What we know:
The structure holds 2 protein chains of 2 kinds. By secondary structure, chain A is α+β, with helices and mostly antiparallel strands. Chain A folds into 3 domains: 7-30 and 473-620, Aldehyde oxidase/xanthine dehydrogenase, molybdopterin binding domain (Aldehyde Oxidoreductase, domain 4, 2-Layer Sandwich), CATH 3.30.365.10; 33-132 and 208-285, Aldehyde Oxidoreductase, domain 3 (Alpha-Beta Complex), CATH 3.90.1170; 300-469 and 625-783, Aldehyde oxidase/xanthine dehydrogenase, molybdopterin binding domain (Aldehyde Oxidoreductase, domain 4, 2-Layer Sandwich), CATH 3.30.365. Chain A contains 20 helices and 31 strands. In chain A, the strands form 8 sheets. Chain A has an 8-stranded mixed β-sheet with strand order 3-7-1-14-11-12-13-22, sandwiched between helices. In chain A, helix 17 (675-694) links the parallel strand 30 and strand 31. In chain A, 60% of the residues are buried. In chain B, the strands form 4 sheets. Chain B has a 5-stranded antiparallel β-sheet. Helices cover 32% and strands 25% of the residues of chain B. In chain B, strand 12 and strand 13 form a beta hairpin. Chain B is α+β, with helices and mostly antiparallel strands. Chain B is globular and about 55 Å long. Chain A binds chain B through residues 113-114, 117, 654-655, 694-695, 699, 707-708, 712-713, 715-721, 775-777, 780, 789, 792-794, and chain B through 1, 3-4, 186, 188-194, 246-251, 254, 257-258, 261.
Amino acid sequence: xxEDTPAAELKQVGQETxxxxxxxxxxxxxxxxxxxxxxxxxxARVKTSPFARAKIRSIDTSKAEALSGVRAVVIGTELDxxxxxxxxxxxxxxxxxVRHYGEAVAAVAADTLEIAxxxxxxxxxxxxxxxxxxxxxxxxxxxxxxxxxxxGNYSYMEAAFSPQPGTNIANIxxxxxxxxxxxxxxxxxxxxxxxxxxSVQHVPMETHVAIVQWGHDNKxxxxxxxxxxxxxxxxxxxxxxxxxxxxxxxxPYVGGGFGGKAxxxxxxxxxxxxxxxxxxxxxxxxxxxxxxxxxxxxxxLTYRIKTGVSTEGKILAQEMIMYWDSGAYAxxxxxxxxxxxxxxxxxxxxxxxKVDSYTIYTNKPYGTAYRGFGHVxxxxxxxxxxxxxxxxxxxxxxxxxxxNALKPGSITLTGEKITENHGSVSKCLDAVAxxxxxxTLTEKEKAREKKTGMKIGKAVASLHKAPxxxxxxxxxxxxKMNEDxxxxxxxxxxxxxxxxxxxxxxxxxxxxxxxxxxVKVAFETDTDRDPYDWQTVASKGLILSGNAAILAxxxxxxxAYADAAQVLRANTRxxxxxxxxxxxxxxxxxxxxFKQLAIGYAYPNGxxxxxxxxxxxxxxxxxxxxxxxxxxxxxxxxxxxxxxxGMIIEINEETGEYNVLKVTSSYDVGKVINPDAVRGQSIGGxxxxxxxxxxxGYIYDERGRLLNPSFTDNKIPTARxxxxxxxxxxxxxxxxxxxxxxxxxxxxxxxGVAAALGNAIQHATGARLxxxxxxxxxxxxxxxxxxxxxxxxxxxxxxxxxxxxxx
Amino acid sequence: xxxxxxxxxPGSLSELLEFLAKYGPESAVFSGxxxxxxxxxxxxxxxxxxxxxxxxxxLQELNxxxxxxxxxxxxxxxxxxxxxxxxQSHYRILEIAGRELATFQLRNRATVIGNIVTASPCxxxxxxxxxxxxxxxxxxxxxxxxxxxxxxxxxxKKTQIKPEEIVSKITVPxxxxxxxxxxxxxxxIKGHDLxxxxxxxxxxxxxxxxxxxxxxxxxxLLPDFVLDTPVAEIQKVAQAAISPIDDVRCTKEYRRFMVDxxxxxxLEEVQHERGAA
Lengths: 807, 277
């Protein structure tokens, strides 16, 4: 830890603190890109493909161009730019072939949205529809059509990824630990199962939106609803081969992201429209329907797990194969594959392990980051698997988990040794088990069963996750003092709802020993003015930016002490401070206020010293290493946040209808900075997790057309879907390199919810569910031992629900 | 984003009907707009005129008479019906089903008649109104005609309405006044959702009626059942009358299964209900 304040002396850190952005948001005063208008601004609309895979024979834009009020029409063949975060595989607009339903093929900028929409309707595209490859297990076959025949020519981040030219495999992450064959040989039981998840949509309240002005001399300004302004700038400059100083990215308040706005999105398309329209600013707002197919989604996963267990119930060997459906572009899916690959065994000690995690191109909307970064998906399988194993070996699922849980001395899949300071999954499991009354039914619950005729089930699921990020991930915080002694902090981590800025304000206030109200953390980030941050993803915001905030505050204090030492004619070692002033420890009446020092100290005769009090804190992840491409060994994890969910449900055994009665979540967060924020993240993620568990999922027809691209048939939970009772129990095992010992807990709240639900249903009824989501019908089918629905479309075995062609 | 259209707001019934007589085929009648605006936004409907009914006083009427029964005007929103005293005391099934329609906010816009004229197989008001033998009044500049709701809805999104006509009101006779009843609806979330499949049941001293929605091209009213008809018999008749499909919302198999479950539940429910007429 970068500071050593004893917990009892903390005044800000650990206190319930009202979110600094709550009032401006609930009163509607916060300005989002969606709200923004500019003089001379044009409006854009996009023409999208009705086919999953088709040759573009020709595009006739003449009628659209002739329409009065149309200022620019662009198509793919005129744009010679390639985009990609890890594998550079995406054109701004499809050129000669469309690779997924909903892909952009042309775009228009016009005086009004209505004219732009009309013009899009006038663009004629001559397609030759081709047979798409839709399921990753079809796409991985030798004779499958290639989604990217040029894969071998694409550039990619070689340290981390391994695309396979001549195939549809965008990446393979391999991991080998111990002797897997020997482990299976020594096992009493071997349990092998397959689990699946469909693709789902993030559904941020603010859809993707950007305004771009391509100014003179290629000076470009981008206003975007984005999570990572510097990544937008970096990828944009790489694609357009522009110096980074030419491009300015401004991110005001953001209406949700959940990973869907982590990288670069629609900004390059809007930019080329602005360029073609002579430099007028152009605004593109994705429609809600476009969020489902023009913009990326969460990848589908098929996860096969084979586990060998000893007579005593210890896991001896585990083989894990993940087939991640990347969709048409690699985007973040390759890194989801990697992060899930090294994390695939969960918080358990597995002496002999093998992981093969594949990213597979298909002709579907592409996968990207989504809260949990793969962990929601594979933990569904893994934590269902743990319950299915414990049933077979005849152990209680909670005891089985605790027996196999990582503990000090355990070695992770990548060879990391667990210490006392890593946090404890067992403590989280105990906390949730205790909270739900695991293992028994209370008299009240028995009476409820009798009254409702429903069965009550109780279960747990555990989880872990480390930030998935480059080994050299860095951030900077700048703290500047104002004339009145208050401070403003600037950083380019974006607070799009997590509450991180409030925690940063608390941390700075703690260091300066002032009330949190005296610290403003500035919303609206500007890459021309604010310091660098890689991305706002991976639950790494608090740990990296929190440390940078401590360093920035201390840097400011160091300057203040130096100035004060002159003013007070004292040694800096003899100085101390409170929220208002710096004083001499042994002569407290000898002091100078921060206000007097804020912009430089002036003596009564007019002489001055110092200057503005400003502190810079830069922090970079330390000690991380690239993983060996054959064995997966190395150190990928800055920190692991462990956690567990406990769930109580009631279920109608005849129909599969169920109610979620209680969800308790526990995370070893290291140190709670803001209890409100921990609870908010915990509840928000849990409800999002319930959505993914109970009702969400993309459904396609055999031609790869998305059949549920809106809220009519792609449901998300509402207020009425929130469980009757919710509890959050933070555990505090300090992280030695975390700010005040804290770890991230942004994604974790969602990770184990689906498995906890599946486990609770199994506990109540014996139904063995292995495919998400768990709609009443799916539960009913499992209860009746009927085959899971391939899909709810006759002759459409692809997409949501179970579908596993034989390899 | 909407395409360009002219918004017409007639202040009287005659003005409205005369407009529709001239421009009916190019017009979309607009009351709550909860279906219409979505259709327009999706480009499924492109009316030249959007004709608002809400300023026509007669269409805002909601009346009850002990002889004439309940009369609901075309512009009466669902919340007004659900909260109406006579509905709550004499036509409880309309209240029960009405509260299952979308959300409170949407029910402030959505009208009962809109729900009928849309003629969706999953309309929440159709099957209770079918059970109650509701009658629709069609009005045009050249006169009026009435028919049973059962005859009015002819297929998926199809009715007998002509371009120059409006459904001015729906009348619920006193025949099934004070009937006990219930409505069971399968949804995909606990919040608002359309009915994946739904069953209405009412019971008077003499008879029982059952209607099923989202299980055939139109909501289906089953023939009357005598009071002590066994549950298996009602289920058998229902299964023969419906023709559910597999779609993105559900399989036909589970729809059929849940229809049987709902019939059994509702039968238990209405039998327990005291004070049934």
